[in-house]
Amino acid sequence: MSQEPRVTYYVIMPATKESDVSGLRPVSRLLQEEEADAKKRFENPTFQVLRRYAKKGNAESFATQLTALGIDAFVVSDTQIAGHLFLWAETANQGAGGMAFRDFSGQPLYCPFEDILAVCVGPARRVDGSETLLVDLHRRSTPITPRIDTAFFDFAAITGEAGADAYGFLEKLRQKIGTIEIDLQFNDVAQHLVPALRKGLATLPGEFGPPEDKMPSPYDGKSVKLFGVYSFLAREFEIQKAAS
Asked: Is the pTM of this model over 0.90?
């Protein structure tokens, strides 16, 4: 008899100031850590994987206890992580109501502006040492995230404004959507996220990227995966905030 694959549930702590919690002592007791170790967690500027559980109820209970102490903890599962797909766009057109993408297999994807929950931006290295900028457009309705490698795009053509670059494109998005989170923090926090990639998460989000013959140089795998973990967790955090 075949067994269902085991699912792990992860309790995630976003960047949190010590001054936001009810007290260091109750947090250290809950985490079963020395106060000095618990204090270090509040010096971390990005997401941390605090606990791994085999049962969803146990993970949610622990997250609820953390929330009661002032930490906006949330839970993600292997199923959620594996169900997320970063889909590189080969082409993009901006209309009045949204963005029309086509991926590198030629499949179309339409993303209404009203469905864009947040935008996550960060650099990615290539194996030749060069660097490019990735832009993820996170959607409310689906975990399929259109991803733009800015090296492939003429943003003046997309926006209709001469001389527009990636940041000009983001500003146009802000104008179209109104209140939206544009996350530019990855470059500053990337090194602090390494433990989540190396030993925190057993599953990583899916990727459907460009074929190597379309790129000037292949991506450095670790660099792209690290940004993918950050971007995924940033979306899940925004989803939680929107639901609360």
From this structure: yes
